[in-house]
Give the backbone structure.
Amino acid sequence: MPTVRIAVGGMTCGHCESTVVAALEGAGATEAGADFRRGEASASFDGDPSVLAAAVEAAGYTPGEIHAADSFEPAESEPPVSAGPEDDYDLAVVGSGGAAIAAAIRARSLGARVAVIERGLVGGTCVNVGCVPSKTLLAAADAFHTAASHPFAGLPTQAGSADLAALVAQKDELVGRLRQAKYVDLAGVYGFEILAGEGRFVDDETLAVDGRRLRAGAYLVATGAEPKIPDLPGLAEGGYLTSTTAMELAEVPARLVTIGGGFVGMEQSQLFARLGSRVTLVGRLAPRAEPELAAWMERVFADEGIEVVGERAVAVEHHGDEVAVVTSEGRRLVADAVLVATGRTPRVEALNLEAAGVKVDGDGFVVVDEELRTSNPRVFAAGDVTGAPQYVYVAAAQGNLAAGNAVAGEHRRMDYTGLPSVIFTDPSLAGAGMTEAEAEAAGHEVESRVLELENVPRALANRDTRGAVKVVADATTGKVLGVHAVAEGAGELMLAATYAVKFGLTVDDLADTWAPYLTMSEALKLVAQSFKGDVKKLSCCAA
């Protein structure tokens, strides 16, 4: 009886493997096996292979290509690499951010000799110029805004004025403390070296660090990304802010124009608006969000005096100390400062990747396979430099996985099922899993529900009903494909949402599961209940 292999998406654990094996055997296959790490299953089967695909799909997983076993085997998978007598390290990591440090820790746990090479501040984007500094400043702006505009009658409301220089100094203290504790000190804890200097490949087996040549059994490129600056006439001449330099200002700009409506553009526009700037945002707001939730964010921004101009910036003009952003419809938006928030570009210019035989794509991101190996089998890449979703938890997971593949030949692959994201505006905009459009594009027949926060008791108690929660489900199986929300603390909903998507829960599972009353997490239960009835007609905490 012929043996076939079938690619299977959505497996995340040993239980998934057992479920897929049972499904294949139920379809008449014998000698079935599955490997969630490789995302595949095998079985002996003498019949139409589409029967196996249907069985996998019925079990709640995504079937892929089916091949005869001998043609589906990976072509000569690379053996684990280790330092030879002439090598200095088992793994040399270029960069010192989330991906790099996770890789160093993982490689050391496997007994490898590890060096981390850093040309600037240890810690990378997140702790130095990304997550940590931006979120602490956002928290400050939220506190300032609440002091001036909370919704509770009978309580005095007074905010005074914001001292941005003091806030930035407080932010810098936190950044320095976390950089030392969570990055620098870990080298001593785990026993890897941090080499100060700029790493540059000399050839496909050798890296130079400020003139010193070193060799490693494997290399990991984890140099991250930096703000992408659009090629707008007049922009460079007049100067501009980025997500990095905006958080170093000592004074709040009176008028700020933000170019870009994604994560950074939304967060920093609201940050500066709440600290006193008159802000205009140019571009589409929340371009990847569900349309119902993007509309909510437009209402929030309008209520806070942030003007959203849904056009393209095409040029920048200068008149004395003033600057004007010109839009595609001919508007001139005058400001005292311009913030560029148009995405990020990989930081690879100094690496001399061509000498190492490492390919990059059209945008400069390092091309990797499913095991995070580059076109040079000795070189791996992880984190923002790969073009993966640019979240520090993705970078850390990739670094961990790449290190195991590089020094131990583990052949693991990333699984992004249920990946969560949060934009830390107020209210937050968050999601996990697929949007409705993504689910339809993936071939699902989709059924969705949107629950406005006016139906959530916690929001009513908070006197803040701005927002909604949306659940995207498979219309046939009821499985939750995605959860998206605009709400105070929407990000706190996303761990439960990730579990629901990743482990194949249905809307009935959510509707029939305990939810603590007067918490925002109850919104998940309520929106799930709305698939079967009108939750407006339920009593409080009705099951």
Residues 164-190 form the longest helix (27 residues). The chain is about 35% helix and 25% strand. The mean pLDDT is 92. The chain has four domains: 3-70, 89-151+158-227+346-408, 235-342, 420-533.
